[in-house]
Amino acid sequence: MKKKVLSLILVAAMGVSMLVGCGGTGTEDSQSESESKNSEAGSEDKDGEFVVKQDAIDNLIASSEGKTVHLDVWCSETTAYQEVMGEVIEAFKAQYPDVSFEIVIGAQSEAGCKDRVLEDPEAAADVFVFADDQINDLVKAGALQEVVTTYTYDPAVTNDEATVEATKVNGKMYAYPLTASNGYFLYYDSRYVSAEDVKSWETLLAAAEKAGKKVGMNIGDGWYIYSFFAGADLELTMNADGSNSCNWNNETGLKVANKIKEIASNSAFISINNTDATARMKASGDLVAYVDGTWDATPISEAYGEGYSATKLPTYNLDGEDVQMGSYAGYKFVGVNSYSQEKGWAMLLAEYITNEENQSKIGVATTEMPANTEAAKAPELQNNVALKGLSEQYPFSDRQVVGGKYWDPAASLGAGLADGSITDIQQALNDAVLGITQPAN
Amino acid sequence: MKKMINIIWRHLLLIFLVIIWLFPIVWLVVTSFSSYKGVNTFNFFPEEWSIDNYVQLFTRPDTAANFPAWFKNSMIVGVCCCIISTTFVVMVAYAMSCMRFKSRKGIMSFAIIAGMFPGVLSMIAVYFVMKQFGLIDSLFGLVIVYSASSGLGYLICKGFFDTIPASLREAAKIEGASQLTTFVKVVLPLSRPILVYTVINSFLSPWMDFVMARLMIRSKDANDWTVAIGLYNLLDRNLINDYFSVFCAGGVIVAIPISILFVIMQKFYVEGVTGGAVKG
What we know:
By secondary structure, chain A is an alpha/beta fold. Chain A has helices at residues 2-49, 53-63, 79-95, 113-119, 135-140, 155-158, 161-166, 201-211, 222-231, 251-265, 274-283, 297-304, 343-353, 356-366, 379-382, 385-393, 407-419, 425-436, and strands at residues 68-75, 100-107, 127-131, 168-169, 172-173, 176-179, 184-189, 214-217, 236-238, 244-246, 269-271, 287-293, 308-311, 315-318, 321-324, 327-329, 332-336, 397-399.
């Protein structure tokens, strides 16, 4: 009997302590939340009031006295990125010697940043680097802090105009531009194909065939197949509700698709993804031209050696006219988490990372084109082969604004054209457009 | 003669199956010895052999691949879970098998029903509860998550305990042994095979788990990851060309602690079950 009573008491005690524990943390949390909300509102007011920005910074420093400012920063996991970001952060800390910082750099690829942030914005980094096509979803979820005012410089003026435009959602700026180099262009080995040959698909394929080599492009991917259709001025845009408008199945579209099939069926052409392509260049060396982006610059330069060159995408012949292929251009932005506990510092840090000096530092270290127009003029960047190819293609590129339903139908259309399994092209285009334009959810 | 052909035929079939099953493993092992860091889909065997991937794994940690830290983290989680879960499981199994108390049946069926729900279902709830307690991003939190419900997996162990003759426990009781003494000195020594099974199992699941670890570890700092998260991260688009062989080497290394554990435990497997325990 005694034992039973004792165990009952124990169980009850455990239960109560658990409930109390939960309740306690709950109320504390809501308290601290409301507190932080108050302070947010306060700081925003301050931002509005202070015309001289140095005062705002001093204020920030004064408000952080006696405590440690903890910030998480997420940027790409490549060693080059992590190292240069480490340097930038150290310099940032050195700028404010009176404040004790604890800044942790995390490795998170920009491409997957949105998914990780939206899993739980409260647990995500205060400052993160992300790819421009994620901005709509991030803003919709309320995870991005609007850039209302800045402390040290105006990113809207110093950066490339198209890039600044891309940081805006409904006319409001939500991120700081970092790079403008997320695009693709043509790498080629000048030992086998000349700068003259790479101007059009026709001459390029002929030259490669003569040399007994191959030309590659990943046609079975919506991101790349877009370039052919965009070149012929066909439409693919995203509507307000997240669905797409697309007219690839019209008469011009049919001609373009026929052309793609013709190129793909050329014996000197292979449709191959970038991982296989770089491996093939290394293994057999028969791939002498390939459409790819700056992220593969290192393996391709190693494979091509002396002949390593890059240029804009070739033209293709449509009804006797040379059509310049289009492409997608992407940007990388630095965003501030709207759930951040240290919003002021997070914004100042985001600003610091994207100022001219650091953009050029990051650009040189990671071989990416800075969004800042002055930083992009650095000689190291101007002489870089891959970046030269990228900037040649840049005038023909469009910002990637496309609804999620685009990718799968476009990829299967491309794959079908690449392996020749599509016989009724008009039908295939109709199907693809039907898939691309279906409602977003 | 006919028998001969039959045997040959069977062995050919077996060899064929062995090739199919071992193919990926052999590929993993040989790729881990490749000097080329990226993905090589053109040759099965690497062109140049090197042990550099293993050397890099342990001696040159960088921001992308910090294997020593991952290994340490996984080891801490694995060993802690192994000890806690094994203790839970055998104790629950003992209580269910050897002791008689009210609602024993009820608890047993409740545990079985609760165990039928896939743990993945409760993932989000677990995450938010752990977040409330501030236990995400910590190895301690992971250990709790992995070992919390381990007691529910008592069934196999209980089945084994049921086969141990009750007369042994009765004999112990007559000699004046308490439940604890009976459990530790009589039942456990007779249950080595199932103990081995439990230990290996409870080490293996946290050691290899990806889903829960990915959910609980939010940090993007490579020092905080476990082996599974870290290796997965090496397959990212930006890293795969520089780290694929390193990833393969990591995959091989992961198997080593399991193998060691198994070899140690193997000894106990072989020993008889309850044979010769009761002297007539």
